[in-house]
């Protein structure tokens, strides 16, 4: 089947989801009211709270939620076949992610644009705020660990990508300084930055950087050395002002996002590549089962709890009319689902020409996990060759795009992790840690570094596959917490919470099932890292999941009701103060 | 037709992050202010905020938006499309680039100045003049 035909069908389904299901949610479940005075109007300060055109808000929201993460999960999950992977992406986007992203925004609008963690404190319990921070701590730990491994693996596999990525750092700083000091327009310098980056691809191809000899001299493999170097870099980068490095690199990346999307779409159209992977793969015995593991392997792209952090607290402060929440929130989820669809097509139609070739790339789960990002890169590379780009350059181009996004993910992830460490320290009463940026930064780097270096990775990427699944579970738990908050709020408004409860129950079921199953495997394993690192980590996340289920059940049964609402769904009384947890 | 004014945020008023699990989520996490956290803002943000609030108050018939210079998904097609219809492709390309200058004041897609040069009063007067409303 031509990949472009599948893309069109998915596009139509997403359109129908937006046209009909989001309209149902807006009218019957969230009861959006165009006359409601949004926080942007209530608290309009022209700085954080600004009533803004919905297309402006969507531009900001979309670039905050669409990136590298929806690429990796789908590229692994096609191991079970492209049919189940795509079905979960489509159904998840329409019935789970859309409900979640849109609902997070809607509930935040009715709570003065507070974030989901704070609203959890209000509508579930005082403990829920602590639960939220702990889940996010593990989510960010695993994000930083897996993306360090992703970048290191791509550097080892594509040594030609090293120079472009490394030089992009001073290039971005130079461009940022030029724009800032001279008050120049940002577009042309950043486009020149993209051109410079792509010229460096040719340089990188001529001068590939292979750290294997250095790593060998240090008694480690090249991937391990890259992981250590990456965390050393992010420790420094996360201390720099956002506008110095992150902002100009984001700017360059935003151009790359649209270039990559164009290459995938046009390449598929011109090349008319057909999907050679099986619809449902007959996986080898001993592989992780499709239930529950597919549903935590693809988190971003089907439903991502991280979106609730962007929707609430940030995007909610800029919504002009409450009815705009439907477009901004639901379409953000659709945008991410579209990226995930592109990833599925790249690794099933782009990367290989025959079924036998595909079977060689996905023979077992370990190989599928370890090679997933490389397969995506090669797939996009093949789409680019349809547009006349030589294959070797096209592959490095795709690697540079993915690494650029992954590097930004790490930069921001470590920065956000530092905030979380400080927040948790403040709650725990460790005020010195809460105010010590260096110490908080060391913790934010050391914990994921330790996770990324857990032995057993090797070329097959076993540990990476496990870490990715644990990342998926924490992301789904974040979504579960947000869905609980939304469901409780909807219930207290005396409206039907079934659209939230169905995905909530499904996610919590899959998550706890996967965690329990993995825990059993870890404690029976022979390696110390599985028994003494991964098993306790899995157990902690499992306990957080159980805690969340208890809180959700109590809240939904009304046992934790602590706040009254007016008929508009807004809390009665002063809710502007910071809760003490 | 409603006049459109866009005030472009300062370069240093950046929110970090691109993409799922690394996007602009600081306000989604932190709890250090009365309503989820005070930002560390560049002083120039104050100028943009003041101009925005005055324009909303004094010229309610004008559509005023504050946009980050990094919001390319909105800024580039919007400015290009608006200017191209009135002044052609070359002018549209030029104005699209100029629109990404931090501190820009855009009126119907055209860059009419820099807020640090015009000042708040200057911005309000300029918009008032272009809207055809006599100044006091």
3D structure, described in words:
The complex is a heterodimer of chains A (581) and B (136). Chain A is an all-alpha fold and 581 residues long. In chain A, helix 1 packs parallel to helix 5 (82-109). Chain A has helices at residues 3-29, 39-42, 54-65, 69-77, 82-109, 116-123, 126-157, 162-182, 187-206, 212-217, 222-237, 246-271, 290-297, 306-311, 324-350, 355-361, 365-385, 391-428, 431-435, 437-452, 462-492, 498-524, 528-556. Chain B is of the alpha+beta class and 136 residues long. Chain B has helices at 26-29, 44-58, 72-87, 89-99, 115-130; strands spanning 4-8, 63-67, 104-107, 110-114. A 4-stranded mixed β-sheet of chain B has the order 2-1-3-4, with helices on both faces. The longest helix of chain B is centred in the middle third of the chain and has 16 residues, at 72-87. Chain B is globular. The relative contact order of chain B is 0.21. The chains are: A mainly alpha (581), B alpha+beta (136). At the A-B interface, helix 3, helix 6, helix 7, helix 8 and helix 12 of A face helix 1, helix 2, strand 2, helix 3 and helix 4 of B.
Q: Distance N terminus to C terminus of chain A?
A: 55 Å
Oligomer designation: heterodimer
- Major beta sheet summary of chain B: 4 strands, mixed
* Annotation, overall tally of beta strands of chain A: 0
From the alpha carbons, calculate the radius of gyration of chain B and give it in angstroms: 16 Å
Trace the largest sheet of chain B across and list its strands. Answer: 2-1-3-4
Helix content of chain B: 40-55%
| H/E series of chain B | EHHEHHEEH
Which percent bin holds the helix content of chain A? over 70%
State the largest interface: A-B, 84 and 61 residues
Q: What is the SS-derived class of chain B?
A: alpha+beta
Q: What average pLDDT do the residues of chain A reach? A: 90
How many distinct beta strands of chain B? 4
Shape of chain A: globular
- Helix tally of chain A equals 23
By secondary-structure content and strand pairing, the structural class of chain A works out as: mainly alpha
Continuous helix count of chain B:
5
> Could you list the spans of chain A in which at least 5 consecutive residues all have pLDDT below 50?
574-581
Measured by DSSP, the beta-strand proportion of chain B falls in 5-15%
Helix/strand order of chain A, N-terminal first: HHHHHHHHHHHHHHHHHHHHHHH
């Amino acid at each position: 089947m031509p990949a472009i035909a599948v893309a069109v069908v998915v596009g139509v389904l997403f359109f129908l989801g937006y046209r009909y299901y989001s309209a149902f949610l807006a009218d019957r479940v969230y009861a959006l009211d165009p006359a409601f005075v949004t926080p942007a109007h209530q608290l309009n300060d022209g700085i954080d709270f600004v009533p803004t055109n919905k297309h402006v808000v969507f531009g900001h929201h979309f670039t905050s939620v669409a990136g590298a993460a929806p690429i990796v999960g789908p590229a692994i999950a096609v191991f079970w076949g492209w049919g189940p992977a795509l079905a979960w992406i489509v159904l998840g986007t329409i019935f789970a992610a859309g409900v979640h992203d849109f609902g997070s925004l809607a509930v935040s609008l009715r709570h003065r644009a507070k974030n989901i963690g704070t609203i959890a404190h209000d509508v579930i319990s005082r403990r829920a705020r602590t639960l939220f921070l702990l889940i996010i701590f593990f989510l960010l730990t695993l994000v930083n660990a897996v993306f360090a491994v992703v970048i290191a693996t791509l550097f080892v596999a594509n040594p030609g990508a090293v120079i472009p990525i490394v030089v992009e750092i001073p290039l971005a700083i130079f461009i940022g300084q030029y724009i800032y000091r001279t008050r120049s327009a940002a577009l042309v310098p950043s486009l020149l930055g993209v051109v410079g980056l792509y010229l460096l691809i040719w340089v990188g191809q001529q001068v590939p950087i292979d750290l294997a000899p250095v790593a060998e001299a240090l008694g480690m493999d090249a991937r391990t050395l890259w992981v250590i170097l990456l965390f050393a870099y992010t420790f420094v980068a996360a201390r720099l002002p956002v506008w110095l490095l992150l902002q100009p690199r984001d700017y360059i990346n935003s151009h790359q996002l649209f270039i990559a999307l164009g290459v995938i779409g046009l390449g598929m159209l011109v090349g008319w590549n057909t999907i050679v992977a099986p619809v449902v793969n007959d996986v080898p015995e001993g592989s992780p089962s499709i239930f529950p593991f597919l549903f935590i392997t693809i988190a971003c792209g089907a439903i991502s709890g991280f979106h609730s952090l962007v929707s609430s607290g940030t995007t909610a402060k800029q919504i002009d009319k409450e009815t705009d929440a439907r477009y901004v929130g639901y379409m953000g989820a659709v945008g991410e689902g579209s990226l995930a669809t592109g990833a599925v097509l790249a690794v099933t139609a782009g990367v290989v020409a025959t079924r036998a070739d595909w079977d060689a790339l996905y023979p077992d789960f370990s190989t599928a996990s370890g090679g997933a990002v490389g397969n995506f890169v090669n797939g996009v590379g093949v789409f680019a060759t349809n547009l006349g780009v030589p294959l070797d350059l096209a592959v490095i181009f795709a690697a540079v795009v993915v690494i650029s996004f992954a590097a930004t993910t790490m930069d921001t992830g470590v920065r956000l992790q530092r905030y979380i460490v400080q927040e948790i320290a403040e709650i725990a009463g460790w005020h010195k840690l809460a105010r010590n940026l260096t110490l908080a930064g060391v913790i934010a780097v050391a914990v994921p570094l330790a996770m990324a270096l857990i032995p057993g990775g090797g070329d097959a990427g076993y540990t990476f596959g496990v870490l990715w699944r644990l990342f998926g579970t924490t992301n789904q738990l974040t979504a579960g917490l947000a869905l609980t908050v939304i469901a409780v709020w909807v219930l207290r408004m005396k409206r039907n919470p079934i659209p939230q409860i169905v995905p909530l129950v499904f996610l919590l079921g899959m998550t706890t099932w996967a965690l329990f199953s993995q825990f059993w495997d870890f404690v029976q394993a022979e390696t110390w890292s599985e028994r003494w690192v991964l098993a306790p980590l899995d157990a902690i996340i499992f306990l957080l999941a159980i805690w969340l289920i208890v809180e959700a059940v109590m809240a939904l049964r009304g046992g934790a009701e602590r706040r009254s609402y007016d008929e508009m769904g807004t809390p009665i009384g002063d809710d502007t103060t910071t809760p003490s947890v | 037709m409603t006049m459109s004014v866009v005030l472009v945020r300062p370069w240093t008023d950046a929110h970090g992050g691109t993409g799922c699990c690394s996007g602009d989520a600081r306000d989604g996490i932190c709890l250090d202010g009365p309503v989820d956290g005070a930002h560390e803002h560049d002083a120039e943000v104050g100028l943009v905020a003041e101009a925005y609030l005055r324009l909303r108050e004094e010229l309610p018939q004008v559509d005023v938006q504050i946009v980050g210079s990094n919001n390319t998904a909105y800024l580039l097609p919007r400015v290009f499309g608006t200017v191209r219809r009135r002044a052609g492709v070359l002018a549209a390309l030029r104005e699209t680039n100029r629109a990404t200058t931090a501190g820009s004041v855009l009126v119907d897609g055209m860059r009419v100045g820099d807020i640090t040069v015009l000042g708040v009063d200057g911005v309000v007067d300029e918009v008032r003049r272009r809207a055809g409303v006599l100044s006091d």
